[in-house]
Structure formats: structure tokens, C-alpha cells
Amino acid sequence: MTRALSLESPRWRELTQAYGTAEDIPALIAYLDLAGEEERGEIWFGLWSTLCHQGDAYSGSYAAVPHLVAYAAARPRPPAECARALHLVGAVEIARIGDRGPSLPDDLADAYRDALAAVPAIVAAHVGAAWDADTTQIFAGVLAITKGHPRFGNAALSLEPLLACPECDASYPPPGWDLGADA
């Protein structure tokens, strides 16, 4: 695997995020392993807000992806926490593919692509564990994205338990959601 951009690199000041330079992103990533559950939730909110704001990606997003994948791969990590990291990875890749971000910088491309290629093995490492519905949805979507099926993966990540009828605005479950929780 190609080395990710060091969290100490001055290059982060040249990269962007939703609100300016990405120089604050390394501190957020580094703090993930040190934070408690409540603080980690705030860090994830900050990472999502800056790296994939309203579905857009930034050059700093691409630099962060290898670090997020490494975080997900670290042991021991519960499946749900691994899914939190991979969900953001999948969202960044969907933004990149959908032209909702800048071109992938040459100096970040190898590490970014190597990180995406590592995702299926990370998901597979959690196959023996119990997954809640959200973790299952995220793993399925991100696995599809990183295996070259971004439309399916994005659709899986976007599934909601209720849809609104465009004619009458009545709510109804999409196919499969009507099977019940025990199905």
C-alpha cells in the first residue's frame, strides 16, 4: 500500500476542505483514536462537515481517505465504528466519481486508490460479527462502491425505510423494507 500523506505534512495547508484549507483535518483524524464515544461523534460530524459537505469532496478529502481506511482497519474496532469511517470514504468516492469535487491530485492518487482497494478486506474481516441495520447498509454500499459498482453502492447508501409518493405524498416502504424487522 502506498504511504498516505503524513498527518504532519505541510501539504495539508495547500489542500482544501469545505471551509478553507485542510490544515485542521490531521488533528481531527489523529484525535479519533484518543476520543471517547461522545467526543468521537463530534469528530465524525466535523469530518463529514468539512470533507463531504452536502455531497461535495475537496482535495483534503482525498488526502484523508487513506487515513480513514487505516482507522477502519485498526484492531480492535467494532463493526459500527469501522462503518462510520468507511461511510465517509464511500461518500468521498461518490462525490469524486460524480464530479462533485476537484480532480484527484497526482501526489495523492496512488494512496487514495490503494486505500479504496483495501476496503473489501476490511469489510470481510467483520463478517463473523453481528451487524446492526445501519452497519449492514453501509458495508453493502461501500463494498459495492469500492468493487466498481458506484451506482448500486450509492443507491444502497441512500435507501430510506419510507418513500413519498410523488402523486399524493403518501408514505410507503420500498421493496424489501415491508418484510419486517425479523425477515
Summarize model confidence as the mean pLDDT. 93
**How much strand?**
under 5%
Task: State the helical fraction.
Answer: 40-55%
Shape designation: globular
What order do the helices and strands follow? Answer: EEHHHHHHHEE
Q: Quick one: how many beta strands?
A: 4
- Main beta-sheet annotation: 2 strands, antiparallel
Widest sheet: strand ordering:
1-2
The structure class reads mainly alpha
| Unreliable residue stretches | none
The radius of gyration is 17 Å
User: Total helix count?
Assistant: 7
- How far is the first residue's CA from the last residue's CA? 40 Å
Structure commentary:
By secondary structure, this protein is mainly α. The protein has seven helices and four strands, in the order ββαααααααββ. The protein has a two-stranded antiparallel ribbon with strand order 1-2. It has a two-stranded antiparallel sheet with strand order 3-4. Strand 3 and strand 4 form a beta hairpin. The model has no long low-confidence stretch (mean pLDDT 93).
Layout of helices and strands:
Layout lengths: L15 E2 L2 E2 L3 H7 L5 H15 L7 H15 L5 H19 L8 H19 L8 H14 L3 H9 L4 E2 L6 E2 L11
Antiparallel strand pairs: 1-2, 3-4
Helix pairs in contact: 1-2, 2-4, 3-4, 3-5, 4-5, 4-6, 4-7, 5-6, 6-7
Quick structural overview:
Helix content is 54%, strand content 4%. The chain contains 7 helices and 4 strands, in the order ββαααααααββ.
